[in-house]
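Thread: "does anyone have the structure for this chain?"

Original post by V.I.:
We have the sequence but no experimental structure in hand. Need at least a predicted one for the grant figures.
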Amino acid sequence: MSSLPLSQTHNTIKPDHSLAITALQERFGKQLSLNATVREQHGHTMTWLTNQPPDAVLTVQDKQEVAAAVEICNQYEMPVIAFGIGSSLEGQLNAPYGGLCIDMHAMNAILQVHNEDLTVTVQPGVTREQLNHYLRDTGLFFPIDPGANASIGGMVATRASGTNAVRYGTMKDVVLALEVVTASGDIVRTGTRAKKSAAGYDLTRLMIGSEGTLGIVTEITLKLFGISECIGSGICHFSTIEDACQAVMLTIQMCLPIARIELLDAMQIKACNQYDDLSLTETPTLFVEFHGTEAGVAEQAKLFTDIIEEFDGRDFAWDTNEAERKRLWQARHNAYHASCALRPETSALSTDACVPISRLAECVSATAKDIEASGMIGPIVGHVGDGNFHVLLLVDTNNPEEVATAEGIIGRLATRAIEMDGTCTGEHGIGQGKQKYMQQEHGNALILMEAIKAALDPKNILNPGKIWPEALSVS
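Reply from O.Q.:
Generated one for you, tokens below.
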């Protein structure tokens, strides 16, 4: 884990950005804040990485203001970091070299809904819950659900995923087109509302997951999906994590069209019981959801029952009751806060990895044994239908031994996943926290990434100090 060393090795002597700030004040007036508390809030990170606030925070209303701000920053070579809701987990919002944070929360308009085409165009400050609330009377919904009520722009930047990914995919699968402000302050479009295209480079997917290092997204066109006639949710318990993972693997390999299949280990169930006043059996547990017609959902549930019986799955109960379904998934969405409450005096280090489904049981089991042997509290929860799982380590950052132990667990998990032909992060992104694994995962492909970054952002003003290993220079 590179979080603490990284925050210490970054140059803390920031360049003089006074000329840029003066120009921004002349252009934007009271929209620009130099308040220390506001700046610190916008360097916020939901993990233990050191807070590194920007020099100023600009709240923008439209794309023209974003473009004007970036143009000024480019002129004076001042870093620019885009901010949505602040729910990223790997320090993507920190400003290690100072600079301007562009707060996009006021750009929260839903611009166009094309029901017949199943598409919607939104501004980046729209949140996933806001969008689905707006769509509630159309019979359509936006399926990407990372748990937090993240902004759509932030979800694009980190290539977000979530509980529905096993059926509906991730952000790279549902974004049709983007409008992006480049490092020079130009506004460009990267696609159309057509469901496919063979016209040139796929700039849309180049921007997705780039964590604000290649451009700032100001408009997003998304695919929508019809709400199923029937939705059934349920839970089942297992004696071991390996049995639960084996059941998941067979479910996917049997091509069962399951919509959600989430793993919570015994410690995570304990946390959920305490936080959400539940009474679930504290063993490895799968939360599942089926979408389709009434007959289709019943058939999926029957097939799933047959599968889990092979792995000693027990107490499987499912229902189509909406209130019970919402209660179940609210507990899953509260997993982060529930886990933190197990040891509230500590800091939370949330990390994730993703492996091919055939290696899931091996990777999760090895990780669970590693955490147990360390003596740390580290609940495991995951979108295991696509091989992605999360670990939340609760760490006393004032205790050097605990810090070292946590870094060791995270490092071994990242290496383990990469060696299994997986990735060190399925959805959290690289940011500052996982830079040290980029070389191991990508090898000489980093040369191509570096070339792209240098071409699109030659002055390295767009979210510098993120993604790239310290050994690489992209300035």
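V.I.: this helps a lot. Residues 1-13 have pLDDT under 50 and may be disordered.
O.Q.: and The two ends are 24 Å apart (CA to CA).
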